[in-house]
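README: folding subset

This subset contains proteins for which both the sequence and a predicted structure token string are available. Records are stored as plain text. Below is the entry for Neutral ceramidase (416 residues), shown exactly as it appears on disk.
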Amino acid sequence: MKGYLYSIILFLLLLSCAQKEEKVHMLQVGVSKAVINPPMGAFIAGDKQNRRFTGILDSLYVKAAVFYDGKESFALVTVDCIGLLYQDLLKIREKVRKMDLGIPFTPENIVISSTHTHSGPDVVGLWGENYTQSGVDPEYIDFLVKTTAEQIQVAASNLEKASAKYGVTEYGHDWVANICEEEIDRSMTVLQFLNDKGQNILSLSNFACHPTYLDAVYNEVSADYVAGFYKEMEKQLGGEHLFLQGAIGGWIQPMDKGIPYEQVLERGKGLAHAAIYALKEGKDLQSASLTFRSKKLALPVENEAWRQLAAGGIIQRAISNVVETEVVWFSVGEANFATHPGETAPIYALQTKALMQVGPQFVLGLGQDALGYIVKPEYFEDQTLPHAPYLTRMSLGKSTANHLLQTLEELSEVKK
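--- output ---
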């Protein structure tokens, strides 16, 4: 009898422990989004200076996803803009710090990735009326910071239990090229989160190509081909979808620029079909636990132009011999993510992925920052390489990539 009671007690204890463990690793996901269209007359980022918006082709969005496994939490945000700077991320964190998200949450666990549309507002400062005037509208930045923080709070209030699956394919052979005639990462990696009814809550799709179809062609607001991607994903899967721009530096561009707007949307639609097909052939994520690692770093500023732009107030940021930025390494189960603080050459995306364990791999270009191009050192040594004068002129310097890869390697080893 005593043995029987002991067995019952042991069983109940084991069951209790299992339930606690399940609670700790029960992934919850919440999403929210808001329109962030700039006012008409605002400066357009990309191409020539002194271009202003005259209308709207399709809306720009800030989209926030909050992840919580009962132990760790973080927010992943995408913004339809050319590249949000690190100082604005810090402002968003301060807003969130004053908010109640309803779960244990540290604002340092916010990741922001910009889609890099060239048909969005100037949030950097380089595309004002001329070289002596910033194109940034401070009121718009305040609006963007406030709206982003609010969407993180709303996403946290929308948390629901989620399972996940992922798919990986290649895409864009017929319309995406590295015009520097080098490596290219054609992977389309997608991670989908489903509720207990099997309905889509959220998908995260990682693909590398400049959204520049409409650059200098239209003066209207647009997310470019990403808009077509959003619309088709929503139509086919429901729920919400975040487009995570990949490594587009050195120089990943559409080959068929000049096509009509409707065909631009079709490009995005085709990309959505690739993501959906990859999911149909995909696999279930085996783990639901979250990890998050980040590190601040001071990148050397070898390019005097960056210091001059800061000194002149064109880029309203502290830039001296170094500039402070941040790199993040995080995971959802076996799905690994890493941020690059600018437009990195594809070789650095491939090297970053080589640091990752088996599972879906995501490299977030323009993640946490927008520090121009991050290209191979030889572009600084040989200006006859394709587009080298432009790419190096828009770069911090020759050593940026090495500092980035060293930091990512440190973070990957911490994770292991």
